[in-house]
Amino acid sequence: MVRRVSIMDIAERAGVSHTTVSRALRGHTRISAVVRGRIIELADQMGYVPNAIAQSLQQQQSCTIGVVISDIADPFWGEVVKGIDDVCTSNGQSVLLHAAAHDEKLQITAIRRLQQRRVDGIIVVDSQLGPSEIRQLEASGSPMVFINSQRTFESSSLRSVTIDNYAGGAIAADHLVALGHQKVAYFGSPKRPGSNLKRSLGFIDTLVAHGVQRSRIVQDECATDIADIDGGYTMAQALNEPGVTAVFCYNDAIALGALAGFRANGVAVPHKISVVGFDDLAMARYSWPPLTTIAQPKELLGQTAMHNLATLIGGASVADAVLVPSLLIRDSSTPLLKGLRS
Amino acid sequence: MVRRVSIMDIAERAGVSHTTVSRALRGHTRISAVVRGRIIELADQMGYVPNAIAQSLQQQQSCTIGVVISDIADPFWGEVVKGIDDVCTSNGQSVLLHAAAHDEKLQITAIRRLQQRRVDGIIVVDSQLGPSEIRQLEASGSPMVFINSQRTFESSSLRSVTIDNYAGGAIAADHLVALGHQKVAYFGSPKRPGSNLKRSLGFIDTLVAHGVQRSRIVQDECATDIADIDGGYTMAQALNEPGVTAVFCYNDAIALGALAGFRANGVAVPHKISVVGFDDLAMARYSWPPLTTIAQPKELLGQTAMHNLATLIGGASVADAVLVPSLLIRDSSTPLLKGLRS
DNA sequence: TCCGAACGCGCACACGTGTGCACACCAAAA
DNA sequence: TTTTGGTGTGCACACGTGTGCGCGTTCGGA
User: Quick count: other Cβ atoms within 10 Å of Cβ A50?
Assistant: First the structure.
């Protein structure tokens, strides 16, 4: 941290007290126009940059938001963070970023470090935290909002913003059943146990409600230590269930990998098998074939979380938010009959 | 910022001065074992969280790194930030993120805000800043490192970490010429004038050196206000030069869009046209066809920048770093003869 | 001329932490 | 007993900023 000019330095040069400088720069009333003018000019000329650290200490607020994120390189979370950052900058706040892979301990230490930095509030993305940690965090008093938490929790002070994963799974099932598919697969992600379970449950329940037999729904999961897209590729290659005509994937990354995996196996999408993703990544529109997917409002997710966090910080209370996903039909899914014809 | 227990509170409860508490918690010598034990226990029991803001003010360093980024949702920058964050967390530092689109003014204001926060150093990614701004920033005294800056600059104190864009373009040209292509196109990105120019120059110079006539090299550019991938799509659709058998794209996003655009036009890749990208995004391996590309060491870019920034902060000096890209041959490029045969 | 009000500014403190210096205490050596 | 040296602790300050309160000055009205 470079030594920089302070209001004391300006005060000395201007022949006034630092109090006067502070008031002049902050546009306080009851400072004579001449003095104010001279101080402002002097500050500019001396290259004064206000010390936000000292201000934070004095004002007891840092105007800083902490964000704990499982994987910053994931394009999905990138869009969410963009939404957060948008609201932050328009609020005059800054974002303190801390990565913490899908791991309880890492997330807790990240949160602790943010609390040391006295952030005004914290957004945790893809949280793996359970009831006991939540209770502990409640006690710490920091306003917090969880985006797409992997575990549900009850809390009076901590809030969540979530996509309706169960509904998303149901929409995918509706879509595939409407296309005539009767034997389907689900490609899951064990790294996100909560949302994975809900998407699969919504999917399976709805299939069953439409009369699909449970035995005709097969499930597979990625290894936990590989990237989603690689997992999708290997699951597609490994799929060895005769008669499966459609796959619903936990997310677009898995689905995009699956497209490549099926292609490598000579299984035509969508003619032999339909593929449905989840998220609507920027890439999904341009894959081959363009991916049918359950779209999440990614930036809105971040913006909503940030808005709710801001009201929490303001002392008011907000409700948990649940955003709804929507079906985006492209070319990777097709009616069964058309598929059989080919 | 919630009111939290301070070392003064602990001191009062322990019946000692805050000095003693501070020393006990920091593991200072010459504090009796009994007193230290009691203080540590008390701190734990009272839920003490050290105030990093006060520490920063006292120590004159914030242990915080500012990052200015053009687009956090861009998967390329996501990987770079990951590299930065890795080094930061292992150094015990935090990352203050500020978005600032491809715009000089925005980047300057972002830097100013980071300086107000008294970050120990700043990394600017995809900078558009010219000599006059650079000189201004030099005067501010903050250690800074630029990753893939769009404009070259001379500076005694500010450092850069760059991929060798010219060499990357040359590699692409070598590859395509070796495959027998004699009429080629370049799909550029005006949003990044510096790297765009270098990649195209390296590409064109090398083509010419290999005997390709200048008139047989066509160039196109995205609109500035749309996403890369959309731009690639439209450029591919608009390409109306008979005889062009290969395209080198500014980056993978444009190339992936181009793959879709050619497909929509019924132009087979690589049989009718070869496509080469730049970056090696995670997706590039799984596109159809898998994308030949000039790979950048993305995480290494971030790590190197962070390492160099750390030494700069430590008062030592470092040299500018130039990392070399490498050719990754996949299926989107193919020999011309084979292409003609189909 | 006198008095109250408004104005312009500084003193002193607070925020939470770390540290140089001094001081008190105790044990061992002279 | 005095000196020396080491040990454990507190005082007072610093970091840079904002603000309640009080003091001196000026101005307008009676």
Answer: 17
Walk me through the domains of chain B, giving residue ranges and CATH numbers.
7-50 (1.10.260.40), 61-164+298-324 (3.40.50.2300), 165-296+327-341 (3.40.50.2300)
Q: How many residues does chain A have?
A: 342
Tell me, what DSSP letter sits at residue A48?
A: -
Average pLDDT, chain B: 95
| SS3 sequence of B43-97 | HHHHCCCCCHHHHHHHHCCCCEEEEEECCCCCHHHHHHHHHHHHHHHHHCCEEEE
- A-proximal residues of B, 25-64, CB under 8 Å: 47, 49-54, 56-57, 60-62, 64
Q: What pLDDT was estimated at residue A1?
A: 59
DSSP at B210:
T
Structure tokens at B23: 């020393």
Contact A295, A279 (CB under 8 A): yes
Q: Write out chain A residues lying below 8 Å of B61, CB-based.
A: 1
8 A C-beta contact, residue A46 and residue A56:
no
Mapped onto helix, strand or coil, the DSSP state of residue B112 is helix
For B127-154, give the DSSP string. ----HHHHHHHHHHT--EEEES-SS---
Interface test with B, best of A1, A56, A118 (most B CBs within 10 A): A1
Residue B18 CA distance to nucleotide D12 C1' (Å): 13
Q: Does residue B342 register a pLDDT over 50?
A: no
**Can you tell me which residue has the tokens 């520490």?**
B55
Q: Which residue type does B240 have?
A: N
pLDDT of residue B88: 97
Min CA distance, A81 vs chain B (Å)?
A: 7
Is residue B204 less than 8 Å (CB to CB) from chain A? no
pLDDT tens sequence across A288-316 = 999 999 999 999 999 999 999 999 999 99
User: Searching chain B, which residue's CA lies closest to the CA of residue A142?
Assistant: B2
Distance (Å, whole) CA A292 – CA A295? 9
Strand C atom within 7 Å of A30 CB: yes
Give CA–CA dist A302/A82, Å, rounded: 7
